[in-house]
Amino acid sequence: MNLPFIQPPQVDWASGAFADSPVLRKSTRIVDLAGVFADEPSRRMLPGEQVVYDVEMLNTSPTEGELYTGVTHLYPGCVGGEYFMTRGHFHARREQGEVYFGLRGTGLLLLQDEQGVARFEKVFAGSVHIIPGFTAHRLINTGAEVLSALAVWPAAAGHDYAALANGFRLRVFANNQNIEVREVQNG
Ligand code: F6R
Ligand code: ZN
User: Fold this and answer.
1) pLDDT in tens, 79-98
2) What is the distance in A from the centroid of ligand 2 to the CA of 100?
3) In this structure, which residue's CA is closest to atom 15 in ligand 1?
4) Is the pTM of the predicted complex or chain greater than 0.85?
5) CA 138 – ligand 2 centroid, Å
6) DSSP H helical segments within the chain, as ranges?
């Protein structure tokens, strides 16, 4: 038999860069994150075009039952002392979970259930995060390097950003050399 050996997509584990695969890219900039950080005036002071995070996704089938694979690169920085973070979301199909794998950098994965109960997991190279269904999730970069994490999730899951219009209850700030967690009332 002379079957070809298919070359699969490749990711560089140290950087999270996909090699030689068609990828979809989306950049999220300061201007796209109105109302996301606690200190909105500070956000408006920053250059709107500054990229907070990039997502690169393999261009795979969106059909029910298929899986998406993507890497988030969350850059280091703060808005009014609050660490750069992703917008965060529930899945539109609430029961659908997801797995994140930390690749580089250091940060936190904030998880919040539908009752508003929140918890953090540390993210670092090699960390594995099982995000259950019915759980909103957000990455936070608490380090000085890029935080990169690979995610695999059901193509049918979808994203519901509106359900978290008031944001997450817990916010993470840089306080001198320390990481400070504050609770906000409207989250
Ligand atoms: C997919 C997923 C990640 C995020 C990415 C950007 O379900 O959780 O790929 O989409 O980290 O975060 P958001 O989508 O919250 O802007
Ligand atoms: Zn998700």
Assistant:
1) 999 999 999 999 999 999 99
2) 9
3) 88
4) yes
5) 8
6) 40-45
